[in-house]
Amino acid sequence: MSEVAERYERIAHGFSTRIDHVPPGTWSNPSPCSDWTAHDVAKHVVDVTRLFLTRLNGGDPTPPDTDEDIVASWRVESDAVKAALADPEKAATKINGVAGPTPFEDVIGTVLCSDTLIHTWDLARATGQDDRLDPAAAEASLEFLQPNDEMLRGPGAFAARIEAPADADAQTQLLCFVGRRP
After folding, report:
1. Which of the residues 6, 27, 56, 143 has an alpha carbon 20 to 30 A from that of 90?
2. Could you tell me which of 45, 62, 55, 52 has the C-alpha nearest to residue 11?
């Protein structure tokens, strides 16, 4: 198993733990993402995951299904990513990424891992769950995101960066970088 596959497995497990344990009545709670509820956060993670799988499989993205079982959909999509990462041919298949055609595994290891990790924290915060993130995954996300700072601050992207304390751990640094108040 590659490092990306292992890291995605840990991140997906963390998101699965939170999505599986959303307390009744909290799906409509506000999240740290401006104007998003807990359900909106989970739906976003499913939709982004589905988008990359659609690109891998050569299909056209389908419009979001607002009535889908978000927990079941997460399982299907995250399992499909894990299966694709386990297949060397699929992992190496180039898909459209931020910087043009990029191997599927690289897109997952950068964009999808970071997106899912950050939104794990958002979902946990919105629903009153454990918000601790995998420290190594937080470090890997910072490595990817920091050089892309300027590109990430546009409309619909991250909020303004918050200054992290000098002695901040990787999770706090990551959250501050993407404009979240830990």
Report:
1. 143
2. 45
Largest CA-CA distance found in the chain, in angstroms, rounded: 46
User: What's residue 151's pLDDT?
Assistant: 79
The pLDDT tens digits of the residues spanning 123-181 come to: 999 999 999 999 999 999 999 999 988 878 766 678 889 999 999 999 999 999 999 99
Classify burial at 29, counting beta carbons within 10 Å of its beta carbon; exposed 0-12, middle 13-18, buried 19 or more: middle
Q: Is the pLDDT of residue 45 over 70?
A: yes
Report whether 170 contacts 150 (CB < 8 A): no
Residues 6+ apart with CB under 8 A from 160: 153, 179
Can you give the pLDDT at residue 61? 64
Cα 115 to chain center, whole Å?
Answer: 3
Q: Is 97 helix (H, G, I), strand (E, B) or coil?
A: strand
Contact status, residue 141 vs residue 114, Cβ threshold 8 Å: yes
Say if pTM beats, i.e. exceeds, 0.85. Answer: yes
Domains and CATH numbers, the chain: 3-133 (1.20.120.450)
